[in-house]
């Protein structure tokens, strides 16, 4: 299992994130991934760099592979995402993958379209995946459905198209994407074994599974908890709630009632590196291809340094 670094565009400037992924590679992280947001989850987080500009710089600045979590079909037309992904994959062969999901109103509402229900978003997602794959195959594509495409064709194509991982937070979604994605990406929470099982049941047998783990490491337990509460309280709500909120202020309002116990249900919090060694070993036993570590507090340098000196050698 490769252990990767998650670059959170909502929490840090693009310039700082570029330095963090360089430091992560030097520290022993074996891969990286990033988010793709228009808005942060809260004003305290305060950033939302454009992932696609940043990815080109990050791939050039390191030798790591990179992935991005994206919601085609709303603020991004799938032909544009296919174009961008093909260019990155052509420049950096076998180092770029894309994860696609049905999206959240927080980022996608800006085009002014009516935000559809989940079933319609799923139908649109599958259409977008089909469009992207056809474009990567060199086809001239015209499609009329939830998404409209007329005479689209890509000319600069990679030797091998990027892998499409399906993003899932529920068993129903994991099972649905099993038959048509190249792999599963999800969150390393308590439900991870059931999500993997549902993905396999839906047609994902033999396909890779990757996960993102939410952590908060600091020099003391209190500091780690305080950093997680400050930065990640808006992110503990189920997707059935979070997907329909349209502004950071709405997440902040809900976050006012979040308790330390709720945070601990979603974030592994500790000041002891050996706790993280044990947790990573437990995740490895699930057969993951890769685990991307997201230290949710602000001290990325301390996190990267501690894992370089204490966690990776133990693993």
Notable traits:
11 strands; globular; 315 residues; alpha/beta; eight-stranded parallel beta barrel; two-stranded antiparallel sheet; 13 helices
Low-confidence stretches: none
Class derived from helix and strand content: alpha/beta
Can you tell me the overall shape? Answer: globular
| Strand order in space, largest sheet | 1-2-3-4-7-8-9-11
Oligomer: single chain
Instruction: State the distance separating the first and last CA atoms.
Output: 11 Å
Biggest sheet overview: 8 strands, parallel, barrel
Sheet-strand content, in percent, reads 15-25%
The percent of residues in helical segments reads 40-55%
Mean pLDDT over the residues: 97
The radius of gyration over CA amounts to: 19 Å
SSE string, helices as H and strands as E: EHEHEHEHHEEEHEHEHHHHEHEH
Number of strands: 11
Tally of helical segments: 13
Please give a structural write-up.
By secondary structure, this protein is an alpha/beta fold. Helix 1 runs parallel beside helix 13 and helix 3 packs across helix 5. The longest helix has 19 residues. It is globular. The mean pLDDT is 97.
Short summary of the structure?
The protein has helices at residues 14-27, 51-61, 78-91, 105-108, 118-136, 171-177, 192-204, 221-232, 239-242, 248-255, 260-266, 273-284, 300-314; strands at 2-7, 31-34, 66-70, 96-100, 141-144, 148-152, 164-167, 183-187, 209-217, 268-270, 290-295.
Describe the protein's topology.
Layout (H helix, E strand, L loop, with lengths): L1 E6 L6 H14 L3 E4 L16 H11 L4 E5 L7 H14 L4 E5 L4 H4 L9 H19 L4 E4 L3 E5 L11 E4 L3 H7 L5 E5 L4 H13 L4 E9 L3 H12 L6 H4 L5 H8 L4 H7 L1 E3 L2 H12 L5 E6 L4 H15 L1
Parallel strand pairs: 1-2, 1-11, 2-3, 3-4, 4-7, 7-8, 8-9, 9-10, 9-11
Antiparallel strand pairs: 5-6
